[in-house]
Amino acid sequence: MLEWSKNNSVKKFIYASSGNVYSQSRKKLIENSLLGPSSLYGISKLAGEEIVKKYNNSFDTLIMRIFGVYGPGQKKMLIPEIIKKIKLKNEIFLAQSKGLYFTPIYIDDLINIIRELINRNFNQKNLVVNICGSEVVSLNDLVKKLEKLINKKAKIKITNDEIKYFIGSNELLLKLLNIKDLISLDKGLKLVI
């Protein structure tokens, strides 16, 4: 695809990467945070980024590092799996009663952002931008919100496991696109249930 783009005078190439390319951190991950994926998925996305960067003399490249997308009809991802576990009374494991901290983004926001990124010219050879929600939420908080919406109590098991962090900063994104509001988690979850 990259070679074809180079040979056919493509002006901008957009690559959908992931927040999984970063090293684990308690701080919000910004675009120049330390990279160090811990999963095969993250490693493959980072390898893809490196290949894309090799072509930035041929056309502008835009790397989107996407975090925690959710929305209606989604399957086998974090939020639909938690919903399923609550409904079926399956155990939900929470590390140190908190679980994961993350910055989910609703699918409609992601689509609108991608559309804007496609249509804008940023005059940068190699732009990397995080795409995530603005709210930092713990898995525990998410479960509580879903319990209210589903009107069912979750079956929780507290573990001594290490708390994981998957918190992106969308500051650059909001600045680039002049975004004022993203769909709140409360509103997004109502649209999912």
β-strand number: 10
The CATH H-level homologous superfamily:
NAD(P)-binding Rossmann-like Domain
Distance between the termini: 38 Å
What percentage of amino acids are in beta strands? 15-25%
Assembly annotation: single chain
Lateral strand order in the biggest sheet: 1-2-7
- CATH architecture descriptor: 3-Layer(aba) Sandwich
Shape: elongated
> Roughly how many Å is the radius of gyration?
18 Å
Whole-number tally of structural domains: 1
Structure in a nutshell:
By secondary structure, the chain is an alpha/beta fold. The chain has helices at 2-7, 40-53, 78-88, 107-119, 139-150, 171-177, 185-192, and strands at residues 12-18, 60-66, 69-70, 91-95, 101-102, 105-106, 126-131, 137-138, 155-159, 165-166. The chain contains 7 helices and 10 strands.
